Amino acid sequence: MQSPTTSAPAVLVIDDDPALLRSFASVLAAHGIPITTVRNGHDGLAVFRWAPPAVVLTDIIIMPEQDGISTIMAMRRECPATKIIAMSGGGSIAKSEFLTVAKKLGADAVVHKPVDVDDLVKLLRTFLRASDSRAA
User: What's the rounded Cα separation, in Å, for the pair 97 and 115?
Assistant: First the structure.
């Protein structure tokens, strides 16, 4: 788990693939979007509870300790204002079904892996602007 700072991260990214987390950290930093990364839903909830981020980007299936669906449901109950983006790289049929379930259980948006970086950056900026306007 990347150490959280003393303030809430703008974006919390949860995925069990360390290469993907490094890639997100690098790409999003290049776009000026600060993130904190964790490798499972359990650690994601711990960071979320300690310093709720404006946006959560989470894988939804097959993570150790706690899957993304359970994580989304818990986060939605605890902080309805946080924007949640679910992502999945499963097979084409399974991926769509899991993403549909994630949307029904509280995800504000869904993205397919491999993620289109430009679309993700646009979505994150939209959610971060909405969060900034709520805080103002």
Answer: 17
Which of the 8 DSSP states describes residue 39?
A: S
Of the candidate ranges 4-8, 17-21, 74-78, the one whose mean pLDDT is the lowest:
4-8
**Structure pTM?**
0.88
Mean pLDDT, residues 10-38 taken together: 96
Domains, the chain: 11-124 (3.40.50.2300)
Entry field: residues in the chain: 136
44/28 Cα distance (integer angstroms): 18
Question: Is the alpha carbon torsion for 30, 102, 94, 110 positive or negative?
Answer: negative
* Structure-token pair, residue 46: 């711990």
Distance between CA atoms of 52 and 8, rounded to whole angstroms? 6
Structure tokens at 136: 């103002």
**CA 135, 73, 32: angle at the middle one, nearest 5?**
45
Of 31, 38, 50, the C-alpha closest to 123 is 31
Q: What is the DSSP letter of 115?
A: P
- pLDDT (0 to 100) of residue 5: 47
The DSSP bridge partners found for residue 56 are 12, 84
